[in-house]
Amino acid sequence: MSRSAAVTFKGTPLTLAGEAVAVGAPGPDFSLTYFEDGFQSLTNECLKGKPAIISVVPSLDTGVCQIQTKKFSEELSALGDQVNAVTVSVDLPFAQGRFCGDEGISNMQTASDYMDGNFGAAWGMMIEELQLLARGVFVVDGAGVVTYAETVSEVTDEPNYEAAMSALKALV
Fold first, then answer.
1. Which terminus in the chain has less CB density within 10 A, N or C?
2. Among 16, 79, 29, which residue's Cα sits nearest to residue 53?
3. Beta bridge partners of 140
């Protein structure tokens, strides 16, 4: 259940597991892990009721992933609690929490796909060769329907922040 080379990392073609998520379709089910007073689960059901942005990064220990998370956190400050916002990576929940604390990230929740990669496989974002998530952004409406989807073709490039935020703001 893999696609042909769908992204590159520094020019090297890589394969994404699963099928790309289609705009207009319901977002696939997932279960992610975060740490807040113990291990907790974040599912697609948790995001329903408000528009949501799902920012997907390979690892918060890399510069571009940090930039992406900080940029979205800054942009989201104007929307307050009108939206749900989550950054997904395979980093351990402890590392995600440490990064957010150190960087003052308060407008995005972090959640990890480290347990079984179910998000990456269901959303077509798991890089088979690296077992890391590709870089991308999804916007879903309050019912969980995908209204915007971007998989960044070169993993070391940043996403289209303006397009993603415009798609999110259109739902508020």
1. N
2. 79
3. 52, 146
Nearest to 144 by CA among 61, 43, 63: 43
The candidate with the shortest Cα–Cα distance to 83, out of 56, 108, 57, is: 108
End-to-end CA gap in the chain: 35
Tell me whether residue 100 is one of the annotated catalytic residues.
Answer: no
Residue pLDDT, tens place only, 92-141: 999 999 999 899 898 899 999 999 999 999 999 999 999 999 999 999 99
Whole-number Cα distances in Å, 57 to 88, 126, 138? 6, 10, 12
CATH assignment of 2-169? 3.40.30.10
- The catalytically annotated residue of 32, 56, 65, 85 is 65
Interior angle at CA 3, CA 93 and CA 63, nearest 5: 40
**In the chain, what are the domain boundaries?**
2-169
